[in-house]
Amino acid sequence: MQWNLEQLRQFVATAEHGSISAAARHLGKAQSAVSTALGLLEADLGVVLFDRSKHRATLTDAGQIMLLEARELLRQAQALNQRALALATRNDGKLALALDEVLPRTAIRTLARDIACHFPELELTLLNGTATEVADYVDQERADLGFHFNREPLRERFDERHIGALNQGLFVSEGHDLLQKKQVSRTDLARYRQLVMHSEDIEENVYSPRVWRVDNFHTIAEMVADGLGWAVLPAHIAAYGSHNTPLCQVYCPFLDLPQLSVRMLWCQGSSPGVTAHWVEKRFMALLQQ
Asked: What percent of the chain has pLDDT over 70?
């Protein structure tokens, strides 16, 4: 068999984009080149991958099976390449971290001070963003490690490790009517505006017919403090001292709010150095405080 990884990439791209022309545009190749590569791949494998009698590039039964195999081979090839790159360029003198903007600021500030103390010569880069942006920074290799809340499925090329969990709760402003009740029901919540976290097409549960959507937890907390509605917030953000009015937690037994899981991401095959391992352990300890 003479097939190669580039042919597999073009096969996967065609399956994912629905046509040879769309795959060619995505890959920056001529349509004829992609078509030829697919024909050679089918000849080498001895199976027909696409049903060409239809307008779209529809996978045959054999093609669907081979697509799974091709994706796994490409994942392994990427991991091999990352491992080789890490071995060739490993340098503990530099470290880039991507941090979820929702993580506790006190923990991040303490981490930065501790890094400065333990590794005074380290060239450090800190990148902040949403949970999805943190994953993008690692995926683009702009960051060696990413720390974010687990709000989306793990991407195929990543490895992960759970490093902590943070509490969340239902909060209102001081003097809100919901504070008059020892415990509130779903019907009680529906009477008031809900402020919902909505970012990268990921949205929290909605319990009120009156809803505002916001893409930042800190902004939501400020709006809760201004009496604009109630919200489910990470407890450390609700406790943050810059709000005009203190936020108060409401007891609502029907809302079973789990802890927010924090995970560390890195690319498969990469080999974090001594400094990265130290950062992981230190940040894990800070999140538990």
From this structure: 93
The answer to whether 227 and 176 are in contact (CB under 8 A) is yes
CB atoms within 10 A of CB 194: 21
Of residues 275 and 212, more confidence is placed in: 212
Say if residues 67 and 76 touch (Cβ distance below 8 Å). Answer: no
Say if residues 4 and 73 touch (Cβ distance below 8 Å). Answer: no
Q: Give the integer Cα–Cα distance in Å for 289 and 166.
A: 10
Domains by residue range for the chain, with CATH: 5-88 (1.10.10.10), 92-166+260-288 (3.40.190.10), 168-250 (3.40.190.290)
Would you call 121 helix, strand, or coil by DSSP?
Answer: coil
Name the nearest CA neighbour of 96 among 66, 130, 134, 65.
134
Distance CA 213, CA 231 (A): 11
- The confidence score (pLDDT) of residue 286 equals 94
Instruction: Please give the pLDDT value at position 1.
Output: 66
The model's pTM is 0.65
Our measurement of the distance from residue 68's CA atom to the centroid of its chain's CA atoms, rounded to an integer in Å, reads 23
Pair of tokens at residue 125: 């880069």
CA 20 to chain centre: 30
Q: What SS3 string covers 188-223?
A: HHHCCCEEEEEECCEECCCCCCCEEEECCHHHHHHH
Cα–Cα distance measured from residue 284 to residue 165, given in angstroms and rounded to the nearest whole number = 9
pLDDT score recorded for residue 153: 73
Res 268 pLDDT > 70 = yes
> What is the per-residue DSSP string for 47-72?
S--EETTSSS-EE-HHHHHHHHHHHH
pLDDT band, residue 181 (cuts 50/70/90): confident
Q: Quickly tell me which residue has 């970012």 as its tokens.
A: 199
* Secondary structure E strands in 116-206: 123-129, 145-149, 158-166, 168-173, 194-199, 202-203
Structure tokens at 36: 């030829």
